[in-house]
Amino acid sequence: MKRFVCTVLFLGLCFIPSAWAGVNVDINVGAPPPPVVVAPVAPPPVVQYGAQPDLIVVPSGGQYVYMMPGTEGMYFYQGIWYRYYQGYWYSAPLRSRAWVAVQLAAVPPVIIAVPPTYPFYVPAGYYRIHYADLAMHWREWERSRNWDRQPWFRDEVRARQARISSIERDRAMHAKGGAMHQAERHETGKHEAGKQRHEERDRHEERQ
């Protein structure tokens, strides 16, 4: 009996740290960098701005996720930049640094829960945050839950699900339109091929 108990404890100590490691990658700012993966596409280019861009803050799972207006799939969360680009995820310690491809498991779930096109769906007058202010104060804002006190942010919390539903509906319509366009191109190609075969047959009969 004692031997059995010791065996169970030993196995538990072996496997628990490996399970925690995956959690630490997602939520701990001081965790080791996420494992690098090789994406089959080139990473997104590093964009140099003439002036520091503004950002917006959007709610996700009770957390603050920052995004860039007019830019698809660029996120800032707890000190790390993330980018969704051509179906792959990338990260960088600074927005001006080169993007490095990372595994999906290394991307915090609160970021994955925000569609890449979310900035295009917020109201035109949605509050903008200066880049320099974010760099200096984001930790303080996290500790004090700064944005929770703002009426416009509370409105966005309530509107979030409806906004995501609109994004998903537009995405489905776009995908359907693309499928219809592809089907039309296929039918046009079949028509042109048939027409070409008829012309070749007519030329062959004329030569005879």
Q: Mean pLDDT, as a whole number?
A: 77
N-to-C series of helices and strands: HEEEEEEHHH
Number of strands: 6
Q: What is the helix tally?
A: 4
* Major sheet size, sense and barrel closure: 6 strands, antiparallel
Estimate the global geometry from the Cα principal axes.
elongated
How much of the sequence lies in strands comes to 5-15%
Multimeric status of the protein: single chain
| Backbone CA Rg | 26 Å
Instruction: Give the N-terminus to C-terminus distance in angstroms.
Output: 97 Å
Q: Which ranges are low-confidence, i.e. pLDDT below 50, for 5 or more consecutive residues?
A: 4-34
Structural description of this entry:
It is a single chain. The chain is α+β, with helices and mostly antiparallel strands and 208 residues long. 49% of the residues lie in helices and 13% in strands. The protein contains 4 helices and 6 strands. It has a 6-stranded antiparallel β-sheet with strand order 1-2-3-4-5-6. It is elongated, with a radius of gyration of 26 Å.
Features:
alpha+beta, elongated, 208 residues
